């Protein structure tokens, strides 16, 4: 019986030692996680048993590790979206320390930044599609063949492949204005020529039948 009791005491002492080691490791890891996650220091219930304390600390470590993983995963997803948007908008990437765990405020600012880029992309895409449609109609009306690389990109390129940079949108607006100015000039010249033709018809007393035959032009 004494031997059995000694063995039970030895097992309990061994369990206590393992629990104390686990508690020390959990406290150390919790301190690290709290610093990385920018949280306040973790406080334990000192009145609980060693077994309960070890369980509570281990549970807290698992919760904070999950928070750390979730933040890093969200940061990675935001960076991928940011990179794709910056490629098409030709803007700079969001400035954030990728070597540390982002704070909740950092992630919130990043989310709002990506949302604003998405909004800008949709705005420029709509502007591009609208201007492209008008440019194609004007080129057909003016019998103009795209003769620069930019004009060919606008008319022939896949809409999704067109770079929606600020410079490209401004160049698009300039091209549209140039074509509109050419059409306005052509219309003014046509109006002047029509007026001269009408005046000559009057002076030459051209019959109405002949005038109607030429009027279709």
Automatic annotation (TrEMBL):
<dbReference type="GO" id="GO:0008017">
    <property type="term" value="F:microtubule binding"/>
</dbReference>
<dbReference type="GO" id="GO:1990023">
    <property type="term" value="C:mitotic spindle midzone"/>
</dbReference>
<dbReference type="GO" id="GO:0005737">
    <property type="term" value="C:cytoplasm"/>
</dbReference>
<protein>
    <submittedName>
        <fullName>PRC1 regulator</fullName>
    </submittedName>
</protein>
<feature type="coiled-coil region">
    <location>
        <begin position="169"/>
        <end position="196"/>
    </location>
</feature>
<keyword id="KW-0175">Coiled coil</keyword>
<dbReference type="GO" id="GO:0051256">
    <property type="term" value="P:mitotic spindle midzone assembly"/>
</dbReference>
<dbReference type="InterPro" id="IPR007145">
    <property type="entry name" value="MAP65_Ase1_PRC1"/>
</dbReference>
<dbReference type="Pfam" id="PF03999">
    <property type="entry name" value="MAP65_ASE1"/>
</dbReference>
